[in-house]
Amino acid sequence: xxxxxxxxxxxxxxxxxxxxxxxxxxxxxxxxxxxxxxxxxxxxxxxxxxxxxxxxxxxxxxxxxxxxxxxxxxxxxxxxxxxxxxxxxxxxxxxxxxxxxxxxxxxxxxxxxxxxxxxxxxxxxxxxxxxxxxxxxxxxxxxxxxxxxxxxxxxxxxxxxxxxxxxxxxxxxxxxxxxxxxxxxxxxxxxxxxxxxxxxxxxxxxxxxxxxxxxxxxxxxxxxxxxxxxxxxxxxxxxxxxxxxxxxxxxxxxxxxxxxxxxxxxxxxxxxxxxxx
Length: 277
Fold this sequence. Notes:
By secondary structure, this protein is mainly alpha-helical. It has 13 helices and 2 strands, in the order αββαααααααααααα. α2 (37-43) crosses α13 (247-272) and α10 (195-210) packs antiparallel against α13 (247-272).
C-alpha cells in the first residue's frame, strides 16, 4: 500500500494534472479553463512544426545509423579470437556513462570555428577554410547527430553483445560446416535471432530521440542557428521557462511527444511481429 500511494502521488497524479492543465490558458500561474483554445493554437503554431520536423530528421537519420553501428560493433567484439576485445568493449561503452552536459560542452568546443576539428582539417589540407559547424543549419544538425551517435552507440552495443553471447554456438558451427559465408551467417542467423533485442533498442532509441534535450541546449544553445536544431523537448522548455510562461500550452505540447511515442512504438511492434501462415 505505501508503494502504491507513492506511485499514485508522484506518477499518476502529475500525469492527470498535466492533462487537465493542457486545457488551461493564461500566463504564469494565472490559468483558467480555455476549452480547445490550446488545440487551435497547436494546429497553427509554426515553431512547433519546425521543432517536429527537426526532431524527425534526427530520428530518421541518427537512429538507424546508431543501431547499425552498434550491431556491427557487437558482432566484431563477439569474436573470441579478437585480441584486446575487453579493452574495446570498455572503450566503446564509456561514452554513455559520461555526463551529458560535459560531453555536450566538449563537442561544442571541438566543433567551434577555431576548434580542434577545423584545425585538424585545415592542417591536413582537407578543407581550405573553416567549416561553420554551429553557424549553418546542415552542419549544426550534423554535429548533433554525431554527438548522439558517439554517446549512445556503445549503450545499444551492450544489449546486442549480451544477446549474441546467448546464441547457441552449434548453430554457427553447423552453418560453417555447410559452407555458409560469414556475411550470410550474420544476416540470416544473427540478425533474425536478435529480432526481440533490435525491437527493444529501436523503441528506446526512438523514445530517447523524441525527448532530445541536453545536446541541443548545450551544443547549439537551444536550437541555433535559426531554430534549425530546435526539438520538441527544447520547445517545451522554452514555453515553460524561457518565453513568457505558458504552462497550459507547454503541457499540451508535451502530450504531442506522448502520442508520437505511442504511435511509433506501435508501428515498430507491428513491423516486428511474427507473420505466420
